[in-house]
Design brief:
Distance between the termini: 53 Å
Strand order of the largest sheet: 4-3-5-6-7-8-9-14-13
Number of strands: 20
Bound molecules: zinc ion
Length: 429
């Protein structure tokens, strides 16, 4: 099942669509966005030099700093009269990135999300509980309009209100819920406290996004909720959720390549990497008028696979994102990602799938403290468990964390709304 025939078009047909849309996008960006006109002029390029997606590498990258420098609407290619909605990204520092959409842009976005839903196995007779936050964040309304485009039923509950979420899952028999991966687990805990086992409810799919999710975390969600966990990906600068999604084969996320053109580059040199090699995802929008974006550095690390998928879709698949280049933690010359700690945490039955990482500086020395939660029914030896976790962590991280705290079940704060915070960097404060 596909939402539209583009998803299974031949690579040649797809390329023709991409090249045509790219030429339009480049012309729109050059003629209507001063930033791009200057970028082209500095590089000695004109829109005529970009005839095909193969020419894209001639162009410099666009970065999140470019959005910041042109806050609020300097990257827009149309007048505000033609913008019918704005959203903003949730930046942790500084001003948010403001993004805008024409009516046609919203139509493209809705279709992209509808394709995602169908790929995730959602049908027009399904009920989708949307637990992403509504508002400036693109998750809530983005998912919402895709459900309506598909003709399924949307429950616009938004983030938080967890007991009510559980009641509605039960009373309306929601088939699908969309939320962050950490919230899916929290939902199961709250349901337990209410005496409800989510596995007994009709819920069959969790569409999760907005946070990185490791494979062990997905397995945990699937087991705790009795569901299939489907990863959806997107970012406000490009459109919001709906850039790519896993199909039911759960073997990589299909990127809707007629809307968003992907490249993977070496994060240090910016050079393209070989297919299948890991690097930073760079995206170019091919069907957006209000905010055309050329070669945007997402900061997300992934690989691309152009091989045929068993679902029949021909669109390239990207690996699910477990690390952003921004998330890389550097301590005493050693690099690691929070996701590496997450996979260790999930290996131990004695600890719950919640953790936090605290980075401190004592004198000139950095310290890493990791806090994990014991499961409710834990009854074994603490020191034995601590030793085993530390050993495993030092194998995976190539250094031993300075402190490992084992705390009672429920002691690590849960996040009901928005993205979960796992890393607390107290250095330099
Ligand atoms: Zn597939």
């Amino acid at each position: 099942m596909v939402f539209d025939s583009t998803e299974t078009a031949s690579r040649e047909e797809l390329r023709e669509v991409q090249d045509g849309r790219l030429r339009e996008t480049v012309r729109n960006a050059y003629e209507n966005v001063e930033f791009y006109r200057e970028t082209f002029d500095e590089a000695g390029l004109s829109p005529a030099d970009i005839e095909s997606v193969e020419d894209l590498s001639k162009l410099p990258f666009t970065t999140k700093e470019d959005f910041r420098d042109h806050y609020p609407t300097g990257m827009f290619a149309v007048d505000m009269d033609d913008v019918i909605r704005v959203h903003a990204s949730s930046g942790t520092t500084g001003k948010p990135k403001i993004v805008g959409y024409t009516r046609e842009d919203l139509d493209v976005w809705s279709k992209a999300v509808a394709r995602c839903l169908v790929a995730a196995g959602v049908g027009s007779d399904d009920v989708v509980q949307n637990a992403y936050g509504y508002g400036l964040f693109t998750g809530g309304l983005g998912l919402h309009q895709g459900v309506e485009e598909l003709g399924a039923t949307v429950i616009p509950i938004g983030g938080g209100n967890t007991q009510r979420q559980v009641e509605l899952l039960s009373d309306l028999g929601s088939d699908v819920i969309a939320c962050t991966p950490s919230y899916a687990l929290y939902l199961a805990e709250v349901a337990d406290d209410m005496g409800i086992d989510i596995r007994d409810l009709p819920l069959r799919t969790v569409i999760f996004g907005a946070e990185p999710c490791t494979e062990p975390m997905r397995n945990e969600i699937e087991a705790r909720l009795g569901v299939t966990g489907i990863d959806i990906y997107g970012l406000s600068e490009i459109v919001g959720p709906g850039v790519s999604v896993e199909c039911e084969a759960q073997d990589g996320l299909h990127i809707w390549e007629d809307y968003f053109y992907p490249e993977v580059v070496d994060p240090n040199t910016g050079d393209p990497v070989e297919e299948g090699e890991e690097g930073e995802l760079v995206l170019t929008t091919l069907a957006k008028d209000a905010l055309p974006v050329l070669r945007y550095r997402t900061g997300d690390l992934t690989t691309l696979d152009y091989g045929t998928c068993e679902c029949g879709r021909t669109c390239v698949r990207m690996d699910n994102i477990t690390g952003r280049s921004d998330d890389l933690i550097i301590v005493r010359g050693v690099n690691f990602y929070p996701s590496e700690i997450e996979s260790v945490v999930l290996e131990f039955d004695e600890i719950a799938p919640h953790y936090r990482i605290d980075l401190r500086r004592e004198g000139t020395l950095d310290r890493v403290e990791i806090t994990v939660e014991l499961v409710e029914e834990f009854g074994g030896s603490l020191s034995d468990l601590e030793g085993r976790i530390q050993k495993r962590l030092s194998n995976v991280l190539s250094f031993t964390p300075d402190e490992l705290n084992l705390v009672e079940y429920g002691d690590i704060a849960r996040t009901e709304v928005g993205k979960v915070q796992r890393v607390y960097d107290h250095r330099g404060q």
